[in-house]
Specification:
This protein is of the alpha+beta class and 251 residues long. The longest helix is centred in the C-terminal third of the chain and has 19 residues. Bound molecules: zinc ion (ZN). Zinc ion binds next to loops.
C-alpha cells in the first residue's frame, strides 16, 4: 500500500462493518478500484458520509491503514439529490454491481473512470428515465472492457442477422434466429435486435432518440443481464430487485 492517496472516486460497493463503519469499494481516477474503511459513517450526522452513497462521486483522501486504506476525507462532487424512486435506485445499484464485477482492483484507467462517472450521473439525474439510461450504461461499460455480445451473425449458422425475432443465448454470447433451432435464452422481437445491433456498432445516440416501449426495455435489460451474469459468473442481485419492482408496476 503506497502512501496517502488524494483522488476522485465513484462508489461501487458498500458493506456495513462493525457498529458504525463501512467498507467501500471505490473506482478512482488515478488509482483504479480501491477498497477503504470509512469509520463512523453510519452514525447520524457523520462528517464524512456525503457523496458516499452508491454511485456517489467524491474527492477523497485515503490514508494507509493496517490492511485497507482508511478514508480520512470525502467531499461530494457534482449535484447531490438522487430522489427516492426505487426503480432508479435499483438501476443505479445494478450498474454499480456490474462495474464492480467487471473491473479488477487497481488498474487505473481515466477513460473508464469518466465513462462510469458520466453514466452514474445520468442514472441518478431525476430528469432522465432510469431504465433506458441503465441499458446504455451497461452497454457502454461492456463495450469498453471488451465484453460486448456478438450481434452481427446468427450464432447457429453464421449468416448475418436479419430484421426479425430471435433469441439471445448467453452461453453462445450472441443471437440465434430461426430456422436455426433456438435453445431457450432471452427471446427478442425484431426491434430489440435492431437496437442492440445499433448499440454494438457504437451508435449510442440511437438509444437517446428512441422511444423505449416496455417490451424493448425489458428485452434489452434481460439480454444485458443474462450476458453479464454469464460472463462474470455472478448473480447481479440488483437485477432481481429491479425485475421485481418492474413486475410490481412501480414505474
Ligand atoms: Zn442461423
Amino acid at each position: 500500500m503506497p502512501a496517502s492517496v488524494a483522488d476522485e472516486g465513484v462508489v461501487l460497493r458498500r458493506r456495513n462493518y462493525q457498529e458504525a463503519d463501512r467498507i467501500l469499494v471505490i473506482l478512482t481516477r488515478d488509482h483504479g478500484k480501491v477498497s477503504c474503511l470509512a469509520r463512523g459513517v453510519r452514525r447520524p450526522r457523520a462528517r464524512n458520509a456525503a457523496g458516499l452513497d452508491l454511485l456517489g462521486r467524491a474527492k477523497l483522501l485515503l490514508i494507509p491503514g493496517r490492511s485497507l486504506y482508511v478514508l480520512a476525507q470525502a467531499r461530494p462532487v457534482g449535484a447531490a439529490g438522487r430522489g427516492d424512486d426505487p426503480i432508479r435506485l435499483a438501476c443505479a445499484a445494478l450498474f454499480a454491481e456490474a462495474a464492480d464485477g467487471l473491473l479488477e482492483e487497481g488498474h487505473p484507467d481515466p477513460i473508464l473512470f469518466e465513462l462510469v462517472g458520466e453514466h452514474a450521473e445520468r442514472l441518478l439525474d431525476i430528469g432522465r428515465p432510469p431504465r433506458p439510461e441503465l441499458v446504455l450504461a451497461l452497454f457502454r461499460l461492456a463495450a469498453e472492457v471488451g465484453y460486448l455480445p456478438a450481434l452481427e451473425r446468427c450464432m447457429g449458422c453464421g449468416r448475418p442477422l436479419e430484421n426479425r425475432p430471435g433469441s439471445f443465448i448467453p452461453e453462445l454470447g450472441g443471437v440465434v434466429q430461426p430456422p436455426c433451432p433456438v435453445p431457450g435464452g432471452v427471446s427478442c422481437e425484431a426491434a430489440t435486435i435492431r437496437v442492440l445491433r445499433a448499440l454494438a456498432r457504437g451508435d449510442f445516440e440511437v438509444g437517446r432518440r428512441l422511444r423505449w416501449g416496455p417490451r424493448l426495455l425489458s428485452e434489452t435489460e434481460a439480454v444485458l443481464v443474462a450476458h453479464l451474469r454469464h460472463r462474470l459468473d455472478r448473480r447481479l442481485l440488483a437485477a432481481d430487485v429491479l425485475a421485481q419492482l418492474v413486475d410490481a408496476g412501480a414505474d
